[in-house]
Amino acid sequence: MELKDIIEKPEDRLFVIAPECFIIFTGDSLDDERPLIRIGNSRDLPLEALPLIENIVVPDIPTGSPFAELNNTDHASPGKNRYIGSTRPVRDGLALLKAQGAETEAMSVMEIEQAGENTEERAISKKGSYTGIFYRGGNFRVKLGEMILFDLAAMREKHCSDMAMCSLLSRESAEDRYRGKGFITLTGSPCIYGNGYFTLHGIYPSVFKDFHSLRMDPSLVQGVVMPGGPAPSIIPLLKWKHEEKRRLRIFSHDTDAAALLGRLYPDCVLTVSPLSGMEYSTGEGIVIKQIKGSTSLLAQYRNVPPARADVNIAFIADYEGIESALNSRAHILVMNGTIYDGAAPLLKDVECPIVVTGDGLKQGKVRPVVTLPTRMQYEVQIYDDMDTVLKDLIQQIAGAGLGHLLEEWPPRNKRKFMKMLPRQEGASLGEILALQNLKTMFRIEEELHGDSAVRKIIDAMEKNVPEGPMMEMFPGRRYVNLAIYGDRVYFIHGADNREAVPEYPFPDEINTASCGRIAGSVFHEQCLTILQDRERLQKLLSLYYRKSPVLKKNLKQLAGAMPGERGIAPEGAAAGDRRSISMQLRKIRLRKIRKVLFIIAVPFILAGLFLAGMSLLQDYRAREERMAVERKVEAEKNRVETIKKTYNVHVSDYDIFLYANQVALKNGYAPIELKTLKKKNPNWIFPGNVFILMDGERITVVEGNTLWGISEKKLMQRHIDFYSLIEEMKDMSADDPAALEKLKKARSLAFSKSHFEILEQMKKGMNHEGTSKN
To answer: For residue 475, which of 293, 403, 433, 548 sits 20 to 30 Å off, Cα-Cα?
Structure first.
């Protein structure tokens, strides 16, 4: 294959690598040095392209993601990175790159200052026939001679860009549906809503797919809680807020990073607040507070109908939030199955209802819980009498045309009653929901009167009218009124009259499978174009690398200089600290060595053997230092092995699965299935990506890392740290402040059933000891 086979006409010089990443080829032969121009970025841009990029264009319209820019930069030759654009976006983009660890000082910049509607045409390549025009409205064009080769605004409309996605979601939303107060179980974390506005408790890659299923408008997201700092999933929302000139508030422990990121989207009216001490009034009769010492939230819904009382709901995101939530007078505790599984022993005596979202409950229920499926709207209602609850249930059942089922209440003949029920297959949505509401009425009847005949009907309905399959149907039309009465919570199912939500028209990723899924959508052809352009670019790059051994050498240097490949390992830092352990002993020994060296060196000073003596001294120092570290490491290894044997410590596959999912959710990513996690990494584990573990440790992914391995290592360390504290507390008295502090720290490390059982025993033992002394 030759160059002319890839570039047959001028239009072939444009390569669309992703919806917001474009490459322009300016070369005429394989001898051209750096014949590429990059606009935007993408993690799908081949590493081989970076040494061939001459200039990087930064349009005023935010294009691509700042999280991808770090891995689209030539770190082996930082001085070769030349950014072209207006002062503000270039300056702020480089500031973010520097904060991520890039060497930006050597990078060159060509600033464009706009005058009038657009700038004069500027050369964007050493080949003068390629000129760029930066328009005041944010658009950017590239001309090849008199031909418009590239138009950013047109590309944003044509391809499935973040703007195209948010615009479609906004147009197809159902704003009136969320006029009440409640929460939505999105994939991974809940969303609190009131009077049409949303506050997200975390954000993750599938959030916009959820928005589409539930007809939610991204324009109406007013707050996002991001404990570990900004995640890539928030970028489309920031772009949309920038485009619409709307407000957004971010709550985070890393406010500096959030504020720095926000500078890239100046038309988004962004407020960044610390998560610690958060008390946020949404203005819609809802106050959201941080549960102290955790990333969990307490939402206070004011003046909730029909009783017009306040409702407190605790959204538990970590184990640290459970104890404080239990003291918060919450009407409901909401948590995912992972959290519930790990903390079930602590929750067995809790009086308020516990609501579990998504999958979970692998270890079995220690008490009754209510399970909520994902992608569902839950309207909060509070009642002060049971008659009103029953009235609302009867109204929905009768409205669906099934009022005749209530004529004899409660029914006494199970067989006769079951024959009267309509079949779910072929039933209307109203009838399907009415059957579920009928089951709720039977449960209330059993609670009030303990009727065995009613119990038999409930069992028959559970078998013949299952709730599970129905809950997956009609997500865009269905909702649930979460009826709170005393310490109970009941479902009252309802639906609106809208048509079913159409198929999600955007690809999850740009690959053959995703393009096949969206066949027939407006973005299908563009998706295929991207796949074809990626293949064309790979062929083009192959021609250059086959011809130039220097390029191959540079590529190896670049691979070694990428962010994921550098940094000091924690073990190295720890070793540096250990050097002081035997410092005094080394000083004594070194004083003796210096005397010996001095006596030896004097007769032979002219022969230069003094230098050899000094070399011997340095070798001795290094050897002593190394041996001290090795002794310390060996002692620590023996201590760890003793703890493992004493407490039979091991990390189960299930523990790893739970922790990996917690990490995914904390960083704004979707949950992961066990079988998927064991076989391969999720798509956000790639060299250079940075994410945060549950204890706040930042991880920069390097080649060979797996989420499974990282999680296993961290959990083993938590095991060791936990049992080390337990060992230290064995001989401490209950009234020792240090013991209480260690107990508190051990509680923060606990994650397994055995951990919580040990803590419960120690707590009882300390209480007993304290009582005995009194």
So the answer is: 403
